[in-house]
Amino acid sequence: MTRIISGAAGGTTLTSVDGNGTRPTTDRVKEALFSSLESYGVVHGAHVLDLYAGSGSLGVESASRGAASVDLVESADRAAAVAQRNADLVNRVLGWTAVRVHRTKVETYLDRVAPELTWDLVLMDPPYTVREDGVVAVLAALETRLAEGAVVVVERSARTPEPAWPAWLERFSDKKYGETRLWFLEPVVESDVESDVDSDGDSAGEASAD
């Protein structure tokens, strides 16, 4: 049994996907994940994208905690149907449609979604069958889709190697909980480098020759 841990719908029991086709995030890991995300200030008011959503547990948790909108993307019919039930449940509690389910492949969704749409938080928990190069390919498709200050979380088995992240993303944290590892990523910010050369062409801090 899984539940919403905190927020407007806190304590609400969620429907789980039967069988072994999905790998639900445990409540322990989910609680630790959202504790970190809230400390970063990226949940309340955020536009959230939950890729490989499964039952939608992470996405609806975001909505319960005050996310402005949540898109759940799941291709498996059974899992998407469960995600829809959980989305409907949380939307009823909230009194408006915060969570939407997209029954399609992740790659297809990112290819077809409106180009001006961006997200503040991306949650990505791909099946173990998705290799590291597949993870990187999906991340590459997000390059123009992230808002300023966005955070991407990739959940993987603790036994899998760290993917070779795209050059425009950098890892700023990772956490391990038993068999689960969470990678926290953010877009690389190219800060303006102050010139050490003054208007006369002299290096700052150096005296000009007499």
UniProtKB/TrEMBL annotation:
Pfam family, one: Cons_hypoth95
The UniProt record lists the keyword Membrane: no
Region (Disordered): 1-22, 190-210
Record keywords, A-Z: Methyltransferase, Transferase
PANTHER family associated with the record: METHYLTRANSFERASE
One of the protein's GO biological processes: rRNA methylation
Any one GO MF annotation of this record: methyltransferase activity
Bias type Polar residues, positions: 12-22
PROSITE patterns, per the entry: N6_MTASE (PS00092)
Origin: domain of life: Bacteria
Name the record gives this protein: 16S rRNA (Guanine(966)-N(2))-methyltransferase RsmD
